[in-house]
Amino acid sequence: MAGNPIAPETIALSVVVPVRDEADNLQPLIREIHAALSGICAYEIIYVDDGSSDGTLTRLAALKAQDPRLRVLRHRRGCGQSAALRSGVLAARGPVIATLDGDGQNNPADIPRLLAAWQALGAGSARGMVAGYRRKRKDTGWRRLSSRVANGIRSFLLKDRTPDTGCGLKIFARELYLALPYFDHMHRFLPALVLRAGGQVVSIEVDHRPRLLGHSKYDTWRRLWAGIVDLLGVIWLQRRAQLPEVEELGGRPEYREPLP
Fold first, then answer.
1. Would you say 75 and 51 are in contact if contact means Cβ atoms under 8 Å apart?
2. Given a cut of 80, is residue 232 above it in pLDDT?
């Protein structure tokens, strides 16, 4: 299914998938990732188990034993999606990161198209992000409505020019992500943080599928109150941003210093 082992130094893309209690979705999604990336580039898949209480870790261990491209990280206790994402990016051996949710609603077949769009950014790709846009969401009416309202408020206040920051499908350079300020729930504000760092953000429409297995961890009211606090924090970060244009005497070209 996964092919032969690859040398770490040749890995071009690391696919990071945070999961919690998604035992039934593991094998089908991993199979789809392999099918989508076969022949595209040298890649690895990193699953981060964020303190699952079902059989997720056991199944991941069994899948890893048969799959030389699969790596498994584990949080002993649940720390949230942003922490799991960061653990995966820190461990990644590829210079480019693709992320997607582990519930099977993101379609891995979209990854090559997003990767091509990221590469089309050219010299600016190391400072840019391509984000998926779930125009036709396969969720409940309440979830679609709450997300639409949240996206509208966020977009109005942050001016991030991104219609769907909640989509798990994203492509970005590892070095760019690690230069961003880290905080809990930061994954909801990645486009705004990339723009703050002087990068580009491009949104591409992607497929969205209904959840077929497992149970959603979506909690509207908890996300609402946490999101308000986080939104105020990101507004503060934006207002404190500085992007100096740096030039070294002696003829070296200018570069833009990354934000801490």
1. yes
2. no
- pLDDT tens for 191-212 read 999 999 989 999 999 988 887 7
pLDDT digits (tens, 9 = 90+) for 109-165: 999 999 999 999 987 778 899 999 988 776 556 566 666 666 666 666 777 778 888
Q: In terms of pTM, does the model score above 0.85?
A: no
The tokens of 260 are what? 């801490």
Query: For the chain, what's the residue count?
Result: 260
One-letter amino acid of 147? S
Domains of the chain: 8-245 (3.90.550.10)
DSSP-assigned letters across all residues of the chain: ---S---GGG--EEEEEEESS-GGGHHHHHHHHHHHHTTT--EEEEEEEES-SSSHHHHHHHHHHH-TTEEEEEESS---HHHHHHHHHHH--SSEEEE--TTS-B-GGGHHHHHHHHHTTGGGGGGEEEEEE-SS--S-HHHHHHHHHHHHHHHHHH----S-TT-S-EEEEHHHHHHSPP-TTGGGGHHHHHHHTT-EEEEEE--B----SS-----HHHHHHHHHHHHHHHHHHHHT----EE--TTTPPPEEPPP-
Residue 227 to residue 238: CA distance in whole angstroms: 16
